[in-house]
Structures are given as C-alpha cells and as structure tokens.
Specification:
Layout: H1 3-14, H2 18-39, E1 41-44, E2 48-55, E3 58-61, E4 68-71, E5 74-81
Antiparallel strand pairs: 1-2, 2-5, 3-4
Helix pairs in contact: 1-2
Length: 83
C-alpha cells in the first residue's frame, strides 16, 4: 500500500473526503517525524515504535568503478512493529 491508497482507505472507512483524509494522514506522519527528531522515539501501542539511532561509518564500494569509499556515520530512523 502506498500513501495515496492509505489516504483513500482512511477516507472510505471514516466517511471523509480525500482532501480531509490527506490532511489527517499527513499530519500524523509529520508528527511522527517531529517526535523522532525531538525526542528520539515515538511509541504507538498496537502499531509499533519509531526510534532514532546512529549508523556507524563504514566502507562502501562504487558499483560503477569498484572504487572503495568511506560512507560517513549518520542518524537514521528505525521502526519495530508491535503485535
């Protein structure tokens, strides 16, 4: 399912227009992103946890030339589903 299909399903299930459903879905996604940026973790009971972590620097390879290069460390978001 992609974002537009999610918006369509939310609209149908709740009797909303697609425009209103899009605003709601985008608001939820923005708040999840904001929460992970500011607090480092967002927990949604029955759905899962979003958290930030640091991915260590590592060696990579340019697929075109085969040249080895250094990939810098960076902060990434991880998701763990809950059941």
């Amino acid at each position: 399912m992609n974002k537009s299909e999610l918006i369509e399903n939310v609209a149908e299930q709740n009797g909303l227009t697609k425009v209103n459903a899009k605003k709601i879905v985008e608001s939820v996604l923005e708040n999840i992103a904001k929460g992970t940026r500011e607090k480092g973790k967002v927990s949604l009971l029955g759905f899962g946890n979003f958290s930030t972590t640091i991915r260590a620097a590592r060696q990579g390879r340019n697929p075109k030339t085969g040249e080895t290069l250094e990939i810098p460390a960076k902060e990434v978001v991880k998701f763990k589903a809950s059941f």
